[in-house]
Design brief:
It comes from Sinorhizobium medicae (strain WSM419) (Ensifer medicae). The protein has about 400 residues and is mainly alpha-helical. The chain has 13 helices and four strands. Helix content is about 60%, strand content about 5%. Helix 4 runs antiparallel to helix 10, helix 6 runs parallel beside helix 10 and helix 9 runs antiparallel to helix 10.
């Protein structure tokens, strides 16, 4: 009775097996033919070709290893800065004559802290930096420390994937970003870099100068220019044609510039203008940056929901993940640098909650990124989940900005 049914399924599976075999044979045929040709040659030909093949294996082996090894990746990296122990706003004296305690409600030096009188003359403030008594030590900026360390994480502790030759060559000419493989780390690094770039701009435009009217700090200006450099430059390029300085070299220069600024700040030779209106502007810029990423994720989630077969979903996901990874450290550090503003304006609870939401977002680390439909039941929608966390964080930033702006 069941013999015809069994025979039917046998024919179906036999046909499927034959089809798979033909497909594999078709894919392997060029390699088999080349192998036969290679074995028939003399060692005069075999030697150079074998050496070239060995170099290719080592080249791509190194490239694959670098894309898969995420050295020192740690979502809890903020803990090592011990920010809760800092009680003095960035730029305020912490030892020597004129040292401040930074306790809530205390009056701190108007030349360095966020509680400077609104009518103070900026020229007088700038001159006062040089008038601090000898031996005074000022609090360094945690934001600058974190930004410099994130750059080091990207280009020293890990290889900068986007400018590696193997990444630029692609997969048989296809951009790695258009494939499901070997591009997650590159997108993650670019997300971190986006957060650092945004921070560098704010340091130059407002935080690292007195009320935005004094001269631009030279180290911060240099850092901003270097971190804005193209992300994909290798040692040689075609447009324009010729040798080039690779991207990681510029980013390392930006890291050194940021650390030089903090050394100057510790000597009270530079300024961190941590006023409440500067914090409003900083939070607003970060919120806008996250809003742009949210819009990109929404567009991909709504119009390209191919589930596990959407080859660009992983790029969007890991870029957003890297951006949140970077902002988790930078915003945590900003809470310490603007400690007096956070305390005096009662931002402590909402600031703490925002940091918890950022950390919660970093727990989403799926092995394979799926961009399924939001009402689907087979394939998950990791992009929509990440977008949800981004909007939660952005909503809190907007609320803090509004509280400070009152």
């Amino acid at each position: 009775m069941f013999d015809p049914i069994v025979a039917f399924f046998q024919r179906v599976f036999t046909a499927i097996g034959r089809g798979i075999g033909l497909a594999v044979a078709w894919l392997l045929w060029p390699f088999v033919a080349l192998g036969s040709w290679y074995r028939a040659r003399s060692w005069v030909i075999k030697g150079p070709i074998g050496l070239i093949l060995l170099c290719l294996v080592l080249f791509y082996g190194y490239f694959v290893w670098q894309t898969q090894a995420w050295t020192n990746f740690n979502p809890d990296y903020v803990d090592r800065y011990k920010l809760v122990e800092r009680r003095t706003p960035a730029g305020s004296p912490i030892s020597g004559p004129g040292a401040t305690t930074g306790q809530s409600g205390s009056a701190v030096d108007a030349n360095h802290a966020a509680v400077a009188p609104s009518g103070a003359d900026s020229t007088t403030e700038a001159l006062a930096v040089a008038e601090l008594p000898a031996g005074t030590v000022c609090q360094t900026s945690a934001v600058v420390d974190v930004a410099a360390d994130l750059i080091e994480f990207n280009v020293d502790q890990n290889a900068w994937i986007s400018s590696m030759l193997g990444y630029k060559l692609g997969f048989f000419g296809v951009d790695w970003d258009d494939t499901p493989w070997l591009d997650n780390k590159a997108s993650f690094q670019r997300g971190i870099n986006q957060a650092v770039r945004r921070t560098a701009v704010e340091l130059v435009d407002s935080l690292g100068r007195v009320r935005g009217t004094s001269g631009v700090n030279r180290e911060l200006q240099s850092a901003r220019g270097n971190i804005q450099f193209d992300e994909e430059t290798w040692y040689f390029g075609l447009n324009p044609f010729g040798p080039k300085t690779p991207t990681p070299s510029f980013y390392r220069s930006a890291m050194r510039d940021l650390r030089t600024f903090n050394v100057s700040l510790s000597k009270c030779e530079a300024v961190f203008d941590g006023r409440s209106d500067n914090m409003v502007e900083f939070l607003d810029r970060v919120a806008n940056d996250l809003g742009n990423t949210s819009a990109i994720i929404r567009e991909r989630s709504e119009f390209h929901n191919g589930g596990w077969f959407d080859t660009r979903a992983d790029d969007r996901f890991w870029f957003a993940f890297g951006q949140l990874y970077g902002y988790y450290g930078i915003l945590s550090a900003a809470g310490a640098d603007f400690e007096n503003v956070v305390t005096q304006r009662g931002l402590g609870p909402i600031y703490t909650e925002t940091m918890k939401q950022l950390r919660a977002a970093l727990r989403i680390q799926p092995l394979i990124i799926s961009n399924g439909r939001e009402d689907g039941w087979i394939m998950p929608t990791h992009l929509a989940t990440m977008g949800f966390y981004i909007l939660r964080v952005r909503s809190n930033l907007v609320e803090m900005r509004d509280i400070l702006a009152r």
